[in-house]
C-alpha cells in the first residue's frame, strides 16, 4: 500500500465521496430550486467508467476503505450498476454506499444489491406527502417509500434516511419520524441546512440547529453511540425501545471538522478537500492511463497538505460551492 492519505493535522482519510453526475431530476429548495441547469459542457464530460476505476484504485491504495457514489442524482447514470460493480471489485474497498433521492429505488434496488452496493442513504425530507412535494418539487413520496420497503425485501439490513432540517417546514415532525422508525431498522439522519453560494434568504428563513432535537432525544432516554474510524460525522443515538437510530449532522457545531475523514471527487474529476473549500484540484489529466497512478497519488498527497483545519461557515463563508449537487453533498 502507498502512504496512507493524512493531512497536517494528523487526520486520516478512509472515505471517498465520489460524485458521478451533476444532473438531477428533483428541485429541492435548498439545492436546485430551479432544477438542474447544464453548465455548457455535455454530460459526457462526467467521469467515465475507466476514469472512475482509476481514481478509486488510487484512493484504495492509500487506505480508503469506503466509497460513497453520489451526485446530483447518481442513479440517473445509465451505467450506475457497472460503476457500483467496479468500485466494489476494487481491492481494499469494503463499503460501497450511495446517496439517492430514491425515485428509482423500488424498481432498481435489487440490481444495485447484485452489483455490490452495501449501504444506501435515501433522502426523505418529510413524512407528509404534500410537504415532501413542497420541499423537493416532486410528487414522488409514495414511490420513495416503496423503494425503502423494497430495499429491506432484497436484503438490506439497514437503510439510512437523510432529512434536511428546516424550520417551519419539517422541524415539527420529530414525533412522526420517531414513530416511523420504532419498528424499522432505519437510521434517520437530521442534517442541518447548510448555506451554499447560490442560496438566497432560504438559509435565514429555515436554518435551525439540531441542538433542540439532541436535547429532546437525551431527555427521552436516547444514548450516544461510539464512532468507528470510517463513520461519517453524524452523532448517532440509540434507544432500547426503538429498532431505528437517529443521527444528527451539525456542521455549525464547534469541532465538527476535527473528525473529518473524507475527501471528495467531483463528477468532472476535481479533488475537493472540503465541502466548503475554495476550489477543486484537477485530477482528470492523471486519470487517462493506469500507469499514471503514482503521479495521481503524489498530486493528492501534496494537495492534502493544504487542507484547512476547519471550514469557515461561521464567518458566513461557504466557499465556492454553488449548491451541494455540484460536488455531491
Ligand atoms: N440526489 C441525492 C439525494 O438528494 O439524496 C444525492 C445528492 S444530494 C446533494 C446529497 C445530500 O445532500 C442529500 O441528502 C441532500 O438532502 C443534502 N443536501 C443538499 N443540499 C443541502 C444543503 N444546502 N444543506 C444540507 N443538506 C443538503
Ligand atoms: Fe437533487 Fe439531491 Fe439536490 Fe435534491 S438534494 S436537488 S435530489 S441533488
UniProtKB/TrEMBL annotation:
Q: Which reaction does it catalyse?
A: GTP + AH2 + S-adenosyl-L-methionine = (8S)-3',8-cyclo-7,8-dihydroguanosine 5'-triphosphate + 5'-deoxyadenosine + L-methionine + A + H(+)
In this chain, [4Fe-4S] cluster 2 is annotated as bound at 257, 260, 274
Detail which positions bind S-adenosyl-L-methionine.
Answer: 30, 72, 123, 194
Residues recorded as binding GTP, renumbered to this chain, are 17, 68, 99, 160, 262-264
Instruction: Look up the record and name the cofactor or cofactors this protein needs.
Output: [4Fe-4S] cluster
Q: Give GO terms for biological process.
A: Mo-molybdopterin cofactor biosynthetic process
Keywords from the named record = 4Fe-4S, GTP-binding, Iron, Iron-sulfur, Lyase, Metal-binding, Molybdenum cofactor biosynthesis, Nucleotide-binding, S-adenosyl-L-methionine
Could you tell me which SUPFAM superfamilies the record lists for this protein? Radical SAM enzymes
Q: Name one GO molecular function term.
A: S-adenosyl-L-methionine binding
State the similarity comment. Answer: Belongs to the radical SAM superfamily. MoaA family.
Query: What function does the entry list?
Result: Catalyzes the cyclization of GTP to (8S)-3',8-cyclo-7,8-dihydroguanosine 5'-triphosphate.
Could you identify this protein by its name? GTP 3',8-cyclase
UniProt organism field? Vibrio galatheae
Gene encoding this polypeptide? moaA
Amino acid at each position: 500500500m502507498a502512504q496512507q492519505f493524512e493531512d497536517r493535522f494528523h487526520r486520516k482519510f478512509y472515505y471517498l465521496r465520489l460524485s458521478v453526475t451533476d444532473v438531477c431530476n428533483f428541485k429541492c429548495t435548498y439545492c436546485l430550486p430551479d432544477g438542474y441547469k447544464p453548465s455548457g459542457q455535455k454530460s459526457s464530460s462526467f467521469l467515465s467508467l475507466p476514469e472512475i476505476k482509476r481514481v478509486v484504485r488510487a484512493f484504495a491504495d492509500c487506505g480508503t476503505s469506503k466509497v460513497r457514489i453520489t451526485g446530483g442524482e447518481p442513479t440517473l447514470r445509465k451505467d450506475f450498476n457497472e460503476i457500483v460493480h467496479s468500485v466494489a471489485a476494487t481491492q481494499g474497498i469494503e463499503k460501497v454506499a450511495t446517496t439517492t433521492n430514491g425515485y428509482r429505488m423500488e424498481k432498481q434496488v435489487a440490481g444495485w444489491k447484485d452489483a455490490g452496493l452495501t449501504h444506501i442513504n435515501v433522502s426523505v425530507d418529510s413524512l407528509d406527502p404534500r410537504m415532501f412535494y413542497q420541499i423537493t418539487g416532486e410528487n414522488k413520496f409514495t414511490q420513495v417509500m416503496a423503494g425503502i420497503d423494497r430495499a429491506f425485501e432484497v436484503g438490506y439490513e439497514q437503510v439510512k434516511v437523510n432529512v434536511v432540517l428546516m424550520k417551519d417546514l419539517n422541524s415539527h415532525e420529530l414525533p412522526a419520524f420517531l414513530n416511523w422508525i420504532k419498528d424499522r431498522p432505519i437510521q434517520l439522519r437530521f442534517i442541518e441546512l447548510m448555506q451554499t453560494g447560490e442560496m438566497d434568504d432560504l438559509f435565514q428563513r429555515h436554518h435551525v440547529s439540531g441542538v433542540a432535537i439532541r436535547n429532546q432525544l437525551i431527555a427521552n432516554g436516547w444514548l450516544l453511540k461510539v464512532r468507528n474510524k470510517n463513520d461519517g460525522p453524524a452523532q448517532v443515538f440509540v434507544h432500547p425501545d426503538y429498532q431505528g437510530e437517529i443521527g444528527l449532522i451539525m456542521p455549525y457545531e464547534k469541532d465538527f471538522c476535527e473528525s473529518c475523514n473524507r475527501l471528495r471527487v467531483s463528477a468532472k474529476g476535481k479533488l475537493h478537500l472540503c465541502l466548503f473549500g475554495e476550489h477543486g484540484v484537477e485530477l482528470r489529466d492523471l486519470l487517462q492511463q493506469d500507469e499514471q497512478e503514482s503521479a495521481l497519488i503524489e498530486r493528492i498527497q501534496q494537495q492534502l497538505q493544504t487542507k484547512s483545519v476547519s471550514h469557515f461557515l461561521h464567518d458566513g463563508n461557504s466557499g465556492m460551492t454553488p449548491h451541494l449537487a455540484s460536488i455531491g453533498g
